[in-house]
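Entry 14. Ran structure prediction on the chain below.
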Amino acid sequence: MEQFFRSEKDGDDDVITHIAKLQKNFGELNDELKRVAKTTLPELLLMSRIMSTLPSEFFEFKSVWESISIEERSVNKLTERLRLIEMRLPSKPDSTALVLLKLQRKRLQKRWKENAMCVENQATLQKTAGRRTETEDFW
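Output, structure tokens:
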């Protein structure tokens, strides 16, 4: 029972996975209530729980969903609409892409430092070579 009311959306889960977890917990809760009290919870409670656990990206959708009459709402409609909205959201870069970006940045920084050192070494060589020609002319 606590699992249903304490569950939150994992950052790695998509909306469908999150809803499936809540539905599983809700089903187990209803099975227990049938067995013990010969009653079940309304589907409206499941929909409310789904809505209350959505991340901030779905804020605008929550307002729209609340404007739909209760008779027209269903878990299937809610799931489908949330799935469509999630598809339209800009995708978050996954951890692999972030690691690759960091590696590329480190490589570029290393190359930049190497190039700066080469330029510095070339300048030193030119100064040294210039001095040699002056001293060679002297002898």
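The chain has two domains: 1-89, 92-131. Will compare against last week's run tomorrow.
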